[in-house]
Fold:
Amino acid sequence: MPALSTAHLLPIGMLIGSNVFMTFAWYGHLSYKSSAIWMAIMASWMIALPEYSLAVPANRIGSGVYSAAELKTMQEVITLCVFAGFSVFWLKEQLTWSHAVGFSLIAAGAFFIFHAKA
Structure:
């Protein structure tokens, strides 16, 4: 296995940060259902700018060492991990065994993406 460089690690860190912003933009307003929908939309758009400011360069930098399929797979796995934590700690929803099974199947798919060589 080759040594991990900044080009390998920086996109992962940036995608994690991007996903934290994305998750709050998409789901944070669920804790404020009494607020007007237009306020939720405006707040989400303001949160989305930092999300894009991390995601776009993460993919640009990452494309030097990862394929597009690998970057997308990382994005999805990171999204699930961030969302699982957000769901439990922010929305106060419980994760069930069926969530664990579903997430595990997606993780298995990620395994094959990173180990499939044409």
Notes: The CA atoms of residues 89 and 99 lie 16 Å apart. The chain has a mean pLDDT of 90. The chain has four helices and no strands. The longest helix spans residues 37-62.
